[in-house]
Amino acid sequence: MIIRALPRTFLLNLSALGVMGFTLLACMAVAMAADDSAPGEAAAKASDCFSCHSTDQKLVGPAFTAVAQKFAGQPGAASTLEGAIKNGHVGTWGQIPMPAHPQLSDAQLQQIVAWILSLKAPKSAATAAPGQTYTTTVNGKPVTTSFPIFQPGTQKVTQPVFRGYELFDSYCFRCHGSDAVGGEYAPNLRASLNNGMTESQFLSIAMEGRKAQGMPAWAGFFSPQDIDAIYQYTKARAIGAVDTGTPPQ
Known about the structure:
Number of helices: 10
Oligomer: single chain
CATH superfamily of the largest domain: Cytochrome c-like domain
Helix content: 40-55%
CATH architecture of the largest domain: Orthogonal Bundle
Structural class: mainly alpha
Mean pLDDT: 81
C-alpha cells in the first residue's frame, strides 16, 4: 500500500504522539485505499454494467466475483478484460454476447477492470441452495413456477407480477400486444414461453435485444429486476393463471 507524501513537520508531530499518531496514519491509509478503488465501481455503475451483471450473483452475464475468480493470477488478465468490455465478447461464459462499449475511455476501462479483479467470491457461493419452486392450480391442474404468482391465501397477484403487468402494458405492448396477447410486429410471448423459452433466455433476449428482428436492447433502460417482473407477468399469462386486464392486487 502506498501512502502519499506528507509534510516532514506533520510526520514529526505524529511521531511525538506515539501510538495515536500511528493509528491516525493507518486510518488515513485505509481511507486512501478505499478512495483508490471507488472509481472502478462508480464507473461500472455509471455505465450499463449492472444491467446485465451483479457483484455476486449471475444475471444475464456472470457475477463480477466469478470473473475475478476465473482470471485471478492470469498473466494479461487486465488487458484481456479491458478488450472484452471495449470491443464486446462472446464464448467465455456461453453464447450470450456482451455488447461493445466504445464510449468508455481507457482510464475508465482500467478502473472498472481493476475493481472487478479486486473482488473476492462470497463464502456461500459454493453451497448455494437450488431455487425454490411454487405450485399454482390452474383450471384444476397444478402448475409449477420459479416464483409465486399470488399473495398467500389470496387471488391477488404479488407485487412483482403486478409491476410486470404495468411495464408490459406501458412498453412491450407496442410490439407484443396489450396483455401479452401477441402483436402484429413481434411474436406472442405466451406461446414462446409455452413452447420452451426458458427464463434465462427471456431475460437475455430482453436485455440484449435482437437487432436482426428489429427488437431493441433494453439493458440500461430496464433493470434486471424490471425484466424479471415482466417475465413473471408474462409467464403467469402464459400458463393461464392471470387473465387479460389489470390483475387484482
